[in-house]
Design brief:
By secondary structure, the chain is of the alpha/beta class. The protein folds into 4 domains: 80 residues, no CATH class; 292 residues, P-loop containing nucleotide triphosphate hydrolases (Rossmann fold), CATH 3.40.50.300; 118 residues; 59 residues, no CATH class. The longest helix is centred in the first third of the chain and has 29 residues. The chain is elongated, with a radius of gyration of 40 Å. It is 50% helix and 13% strand. Strands 5-6-4-7-8-3-9-12-13 form a 9-stranded mixed beta sheet, with helices on both faces. A two-stranded antiparallel ribbon has the order 1-2. The mean pLDDT is 84. The termini are far apart.
Length: 640
């Protein structure tokens, strides 16, 4: 409401009164009436009828009244325009026309679907046309969803977008509800389904081993570099000082353990824990690891750590465990990361759905593994741009309970560029303070900016509600005050004052009390949108998709276990074949002394010091066995 809306009716009423008075005086003057006893409202009280009103002097009287009315209205409007009240913000919720103009009423399937616009009409149900607020991938590839527990983020956002996404999906599935609701549909659409559930003891789990990719690299320095990157994805500490002072050295120790695990032919993180945590005397153990390692930098790291005081070395090991590596002491975690059933590098080549299933009570425990998985995924996508011919499929990444996973710097750093590499990321958190607690305000604002679209579902936390209120912007409200005062002579004077006031489009309290069926969308560089939350099982569009699903859930079956065992057996057979003894029959009449001399002549000459330096524990054992063999040969074969 503004000043013009008040001035217009005032001008019409005033103009009508003035016009009727002037017109009535003109008519009575023409009729010769006495001015003292004349009725100024004769045009109304003594209306002559339509036919006589078109004759003089009545016609001129009515024309004078009309002209006065128009003049008064124009004068009043002119005053209202020249004396406007101060205007403040103009924030408002988008209308349907604005939403359409801004490209957020796209056909679903070509981008993220955020909410529903209004109720379903009968015609819409008949024609199968439903109005969803949905964008295309070029406009809003990512989304930040803020929703407390049981607010409907699964039924209103995660499940609809998992059902619709035309490509590969990687979903952090808390409680396994997304797998149950969408896996059969995606399998029927042609996706290969993978179920990665470390703590599901009722069903088999697929496996993922990040070290297998690194072990396949031919260059050992490149292996060392990739292990260094890997350590930053999941070995983190939130403390300042204390553990944080040891984390850099702890990561170096992890890299050295990884290099030795690869050299042993056992490239798993479980083997790294056995390398680093095995044995009571860590100093002596690391001396043996240094002697065993072939890579120079690996040998140097173990040598350096073996020289630390026991207390210092124990601190590094303790920090390494607390930063995340201690999780692999669990045999189930070791087992599900001991081999590869899927690869991040093929997600853009063919449609796949990877459900990473974790119970809500286990998120904190399994957070290091989750950080490792998603860090590897994002790094793999970022490593190269997709080839349109061989990698046509985009990859949707849904990170639920994001703030409970611990700090993942790679997400903050890569979110803006990831869309160009085929990644579509949805970050879901319970509250704004939850993000601030892990990432700090600056990194949280960076995530919000990179996301582009923010979806708030039932924001009931104080700081979150305040952030939403501020993000919605300010609007202008007209305030009218009416007061009575005495003029000192027994009369009362009435005064009306009007002023514009600035106020939030929604106050924090109004945000917290928002109807549970409503959601707030804040698109980048647009006015906000107030819309209806999707409930997929009540929605006519999604209900059809759900009804078409049938059959058992695609858990890994016994055949998967057999294939995994066969793969392990074949790998072990290949390793054994490398050490198969060669058949050798010495010519008749050859003495043991001649055989030994021939072997010794083929070896390069080493000094005693060089020989001792080059020997490993395993070499010493081999020499001892060779010495025993030589004695037996001398006993059975004549020397001369």
């Amino acid at each position: 409401m503004n000043r013009t809306l008040i001035a217009l009716p005032f001008g019409i009423i005033s103009g009508a009164i003035i016009g009727l008075m002037l017109g009535g005086m003109w008519v009575q003057h023409q009729l010769g009436a006495n001015a003292a006893s004349a009725d100024m409202f004769i045009l109304v009280k003594q209306f002559p009828g339509l036919s006589r009103s078109m004759t003089q002097p009545w016609l001129t009287g009515y024309q004078i009244a009309g002209a006065a009315l128009v003049a008064t209205v124009l004068f009043t409007l002119a005053l209202s325009f020249t004396q406007k009240l101060t205007q403040y913000g103009k924030a408002h919720f988008q209308s349907s026309a604005e939403i359409r103009k801004n490209g957020l009423l796209q056909m679903i399937g070509g981008g993220l679907v955020f909410a529903r616009l209004g109720t379903y009409s009968i015609l819409g149900r008949i024609l199968g046309r439903f109005r969803f607020i949905a964008s295309n991938w070029d406009k809003f590839p990512h989304c930040l969803v803020v929703a407390p527990t049981r607010a409907g983020k699964g039924v209103g956002y995660v499940i609809p977008n998992t059902l619709l996404f035309p490509g590969s999906c990687v979903i952090l599935d808390v409680k396994g509800e997304i797998f149950e609701a969408t896996s059969r549909h995606r399998q029927r659409q042609g996706d290969e389904i993978f179920y990665f559930a470390p703590f599901d003891f009722e069903h088999h789990s697929h496996r993922y081993n990040p070290l297998e990719r690194i072990a396949a690299l031919k260059n050992t320095d490149q292996q060392f570099t990739e292990l260094s990157k890997l350590s930053t994805y999941f070995l983190t500490t939130s403390e300042k000082g204390g553990a944080a002072d040891f984390i850099v050295g702890a990561r170096e120790l992890f890299v050295a353990g990884g290099m030795l695990a690869i050299e042993r032919g056992k490239p798993t993180i479980g083997e790294i824990t056995r390398v680093l945590f095995g044995g009571a005397d860590k100093s002596e153990e690391y001396k043996l690891r240094a002697a065993e390692a072939r890579h120079q930098q690996t040998r140097d790291i173990f040598t350096d750590f073996s020289g630390y005081a026991d207390r210092t070395l124990s601190s590094y090991v303790s920090v390494l465990k607390g930063a995340g590596l201690g999780l692999w002491v669990n045999p189930k975690v070791d087992r599900v990361t001991s081999g590869n059933d899927f690869s991040w590098s093929t997600l853009r080549m063919k449609p796949q759905s990877v459900y990473i299933v974790v119970n809500s009570d286990d998120i904190t425990t399994l957070a290091p593994l989750m950080r490792l998985l998603f860090g590897e995924l994002i790094a793999t996508l970022r490593s190269s741009l997709p080839n349109p011919k061989t990698e046509p499929w985009p990859v949707q990444i849904i990170l639920d309970e994001f703030d409970q996973l611990g700090k993942m710097p790679i997400v903050v750093q890569s979110l803006k560029q990831l869309a160009g590499h085929g990644g579509r990321v949805s970050i879901i958190t319970q509250s704004i303070p939850g993000l601030d607690n892990i990432y700090g305000e600056n990194d949280r604002l960076s995530v919000e900016s990179a996301a582009g679209m923010k979806l708030f579902i039932s924001p009931n936390e104080k700081k979150t509600a305040a952030e939403v209120s501020e993000a919605l912007g300010k609007t202008t409200r007209l305030s009218v005050s009416d007061s009575l005062s005495s003029d000192g002579r027994g009369f009362r004077r009435r005064s009306v004052s009007r002023r514009n006031e600035e106020r939030p489009l929604m106050s924090p309290d109004e945000v917290k009390k928002l109807d549970a069926s409503k959601v707030i969308l804040i698109p980048e560089r647009q006015n906000p949108i107030l819309a209806d939350r999707i409930v997929y099982y009540e929605d006519p569009y999604f209900s059809k998709i759900m009804a078409a699903q049938s059959g058992p859930l695609p858990y890994p079956d016994e055949r998967h276990q057999i294939r995994s065992m066969r793969h392990e057996i074949e790998k072990l057979q290949g390793q054994v074949a490398q050490f198969r003894p060669l058949a050798y029959a010495p010519p008749a009449g050859i003495t043991a002394k001649e055989i030994i001399a021939e072997v010794e002549a083929a070896q390069p000459a080493l000094t005693d010091a060089e020989a001792r330096e080059s020997l490993r524990p395993s070499d010493k054992e081999a020499i001892r066995k060779a010495s025993d063999f030589r004695k037996k040969m001398k006993a059975k074969v004549p020397i001369e």
